[in-house]
Design a protein that fits this description.
The strands form two sheets. A ten-stranded mixed sheet has the order 8-17-16-15-14-13-12-9-10-11, with helices on both faces. A seven-stranded parallel sheet has the order 3-2-1-4-5-6-7, sandwiched between helices. About 40% of the residues lie in helices and about 15% in strands. The protein is elongated and about 85 Å long. Helix 16 packs across helix 17. By secondary structure, it is of the alpha/beta class. The longest helix is centred in the C-terminal third of the chain and has 23 residues. The chain has two domains: about 210 residues, 3-Layer(aba) Sandwich (Rossmann fold); about 280 residues, UDP-N-acetylmuramoyl-L-alanine:D-glutamate ligase. The structure holds ligand NAX, adenosine-5'-diphosphate (ADP) and potassium ion (K). Its cofactor is K(+); Mg(2+). InterPro entries: Carbohydrate_kinase_pred_CS, CARKD, Nnr, Ribokinase-like, YjeF_N_dom, YjeF_N_dom_sf. It catalyses: (6S)-NADHX + ADP = AMP + phosphate + NADH + H(+); (6R)-NADPHX = (6S)-NADPHX; (6S)-NADPHX + ADP = AMP + phosphate + NADPH + H(+); (6R)-NADHX = (6S)-NADHX. Homotetramer. It holds the Pfam family Carb_kinase.
């Protein structure tokens, strides 16, 4: 599914209005109804509601929401913040519709800001996607007072003060919302770790923006829905055999870290690979043979570290490399050999990323359109350097993808996938229970298995990250977030794939 910028959202509004022959106030009414539907489900009629409105259409939404909640018998107070002479036309219309119902209070000075007790349910309708400069002055005073209260704040469309698709300047005040209810589609800003404290728990409510516009508009930003993942997943053929589903090679594990190889191998097998071979340092040979009987195991001549490539390497159709490897010189040399000689698709994780990051020569020998990197933020920083903020980091990541014609899966909540063409796909599954050692190794195994099965590198990243998070979400239901370990994620892969196949 596409993510739209603020400008595209505006175009979508205009297109929808024209296509349906409605007015912009009709669309505002629809948006406010969608918000109110969510609000009514969440908060009881007995709640006291304060709505803070800014001068634009976000404030207009706030006025309509106030009217609808008042009609439903909530106790509602409306506060108009700032200069109400310069308001948007739809705001004006709705102010007239509201004013005969109940009086509104104006806030132009700090002493007019009301006391906000903990029990008040605040609706933040100060600014939405039209914010074009940092929030200062009386608006900032209101934002600060709301943030300092312990009231529950629900933001309409956006937490006021945050830019929807670029870095907010540091001098601007930003609402710290408990909930953010966005219209039609999530905003890029919601998916970035730096905004967690502002966006809170976000939900999207449909407002019937034109499907035609959304399907035709050009974008390089996407988020993965369940249907997107289902569309990618391929059925297994009746007369198929293991040779059809690929032969993967995993180069993982080191002395004291053979578990990483076990985790990657088990996840790879649980993700549909036809055949799996691992090569591990000789100290790990019997561990792998015992822990993962379904996989074939080769023993490296070195007892502790990866030091050589398998002799008949051509027979594999993908190589997953990195988890548990360590960064010994001998391993670095072996990775150098792999990069300069291999014609394989490569899934590169963990220490293999760290090794490549440390050498411009290795970076220069990366084969084009063959590599998926799966770094966590620290590994990404080693690979591409430090970035000032989440927006710059995504830009820098895409520049790297373009320069080296590779894919990068930046792991975290809403893992972000960058492609050589400059597209970004955000994941929508996963939970903080997965913030535990070894879950990344599981992801390496999954993506390696998908590449083995002839999914394109882009498909393998999108589906792999989605199903990994989905397995984590299913694990959450049985073990919770505190006790979750990486094996729980693998143990729920069967259910996750079946869920995508609509078999469970
Ligand atoms: N028909 C439509 O266009 C629809 C718009 N919708 C709502 O409209 C919002 C966007 O509305 P607008 O484009 O009017 O924008 P906003 O309501 O976000 O704010 C823009 C207004 O605030 C002023 N402004 C911007 N930054 C400021 C700052 N830092 N300090 C003081 N004033 C500032 C601008 O000059 C402008 O008057 C969406 O977020 C959504 O809530 C929804 O009603 C759906 C339909
Ligand atoms: N808070 C979170 N929400 C969702 N997913 C998470 C969260 N924390 C971690 N994960 C997922 O767990 C995995 C952790 O990978 P990584 O940091 O490489 O761990 P390790 O190296 O220990 O295996 C990633 O796929 C990441 O997306
Ligand atoms: K808002």
């Amino acid at each position: 599914m596409k993510l739209l910028t603020a400008a595209q959202t505006k175009e979508a509004d205009t297109f929808t209005i024209k296509e349906e022959g409605i007015t912009s106030t009709d669309l505002m009414e629809r948006a406010a109804k969608a918000f109110t539907g969510w609000f009514e489900n969440k908060f009881q009629l007995s709640e006291e509601v304060y709505v803070f409105c800014g001068p634009g259409n976000n404030g207009g939404d706030g006025l309509v929401v106030a009217r609808l909640l008042h009609q439903r018998k909530y106790s509602v107070k409306v506060f108009l913040v700032g200069d109400t002479e310069k308001v948007s036309p739809d705001f004006k219309i709705n102010l007239e519709r509201w004013s005969d119902k109940l009086s509104t209070k104006h806030i132009t000075e700090v002493n007019q800001i009301p006391e906000i007790s903990q029990s008040i349910k605040v609706i933040d309708a100060l600014f939405g996607t039209g914010l074009n400069r940092p929030v200062t002055g009386i608006y900032a005073d209101v934002v600060e007072k709301l943030n300092a209260s312990s009231a529950c704040i629900t933001s309409i469309d956006m937490p006021s003060g945050i830019y929807s698709d670029s870095q907010t300047p540091p001098e601007g005040a930003i609402i710290k919302a408990t909930y953010t209810i966005s219209f039609q589609l999530p905003k890029l800003a919601f998916l970035l770790p730096q905004h967690e404290a502002y966006v809170g728990e976000w939900h999207v409510v449909p407002i019937g923006l034109s499907d035609k516009f959304i399907s035709e508009v050009e974008t390089d930003l996407y988020f993965t829905t369940h249907q997107d993942a289902q569309r990618i997943l391929k059925p297994r053929k009746k007369f198929s055999h293991k040779g059809i589903y690929g032969h993967a090679l995993l180069l993982c594990g080191g002395f004291g870290k053979m578990g990483a190889a076990v985790l990657a191998a088990r996840a790879c097998l649980r993700s549909g690979v036809g055949l799996l071979t691992l090569q591990v340092p000789s100290a790990g040979y019997s561990i792998l043979q015992t822990a993962v009987p379904e996989a074939m195991t080769l023993s490296d001549k070195n007892r502790k570290h990866l030091s050589e490539l398998p002799q008949d390497i051509e027979k594999y159709n993908v190589i997953g490399i990195g988890p548990g490897l360590g960064t010994e010189r001998v391993t670095k040399t072996t990775i150098g050999q792999l990069l300069s000689t291999s014609t394989h698709n490569l899934v590169i994780d963990a220490d293999a990323i760290n090794i490549i990051a440390s050498s411009e020569k290795l970076k220069a020998s990366l084969p084009k359109n063959k590599v998926i990197f799966t770094p966590h933020p620290k590994e990404l920083e080693r690979l591409i350097g430090k970035s000032n903020n989440d927006y710059d980091r995504l830009r820098d990541m895409l520049e790297f993808c373009h320069e080296y014609q590779c894919y990068i899966v930046l792991k975290g909540n809403n893992s972000a996938i960058g492609t050589p063409e400059g597209n970004l796909y955000f994941n929508t599954t996963g939970n903080p229970g997965m913030a535990t050692g070894g879950t990344g190794d599981v992801l390496t195994g999954i993506i390696t298995a998908l590449v083995a099965q002839n999914y394109t590198l882009e498909e393998a990243c999108i589906l792999g990250v989605y199903v990994h998070g989905l397995a984590g979400d299913l694990a959450l239901k049985s073990v919770g977030d505190i006790a979750m370990i990486a094996s729980d994620v693998t143990d729920h892969l069967p259910q996750a794939f079946m869920h995508l196949q609509q078999l469970s």
